[in-house]
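// run 5 | inverse folding | seed 20
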């Protein structure tokens, strides 16, 4: 169980979706989603005591679920407590299938949530804005105003539009924008980054 949102720290989480081996929680504060593995091996666990025989004298006992084949194999059960409860042989093939299904489900959910959570960020909003018709029109106006020439080096053609300030982001006046070549734009942001 997830108790707090990994993004905002809020404890206001609710289960949004369930999968065979995972729950997806959504934060009611910031809409960030995360997934966690369920506590049991599956949704309908039916564990039995199963034995693995290594040779004539050596063996180990584990609980294995008859429903999914799942097991916790980190530490064997004590023989003196469980040897009378053995109900069958440990099924290694089903155990490996269970591990693979759980891993595959986790990877699929992770990729899905990674994309969904990215769409809930300022970076996504900004990148979507840069693809909008409004930005493309504004970009064309700035390039025309600056004669398609980089305003820093004054030698190379301008390809990028640089924000001189971000306080009017998404509603910038043309004075807040400057046409730059790619090299000057990258160097300008590198210098800004190194100041931090």
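// decoded
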């Amino acid at each position: 169980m997830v108790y707090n949102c990994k993004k905002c720290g809020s404890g206001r989480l609710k289960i949004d979706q369930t999968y065979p081996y995972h729950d997806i929680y959504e934060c009611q504060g910031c809409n960030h989603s995360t997934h966690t593995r369920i506590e049991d091996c599956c949704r309908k666990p039916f564990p039995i005591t199963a034995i693995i025989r290594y040779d004539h004298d050596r063996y180990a006992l584990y609980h294995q679920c008859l429903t999914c084949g799942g097991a916790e194999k980190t530490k064997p059960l004590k023989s003196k407590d469980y040897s009378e409860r053995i109900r069958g042989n440990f099924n290694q093939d089903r155990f490996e299938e269970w591990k693979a299904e759980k891993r595959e489900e986790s990877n699929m959910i992770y990729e899905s949530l990674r994309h969904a959570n990215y769409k809930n960020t300022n970076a996504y909003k900004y990148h979507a804005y840069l693809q909008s018709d409004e930005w493309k029109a504004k970009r064309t106006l700035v390039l025309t105003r600056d004669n398609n020439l980089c305003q820093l080096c004054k030698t190379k053609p301008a390809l990028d539009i640089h924000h001189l300030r971000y306080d009017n982001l998404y509603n910038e006046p043309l004075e807040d924008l400057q046409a730059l070549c790619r090299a000057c734009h990258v160097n300008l942001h590198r210098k800004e980054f190194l100041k931090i």
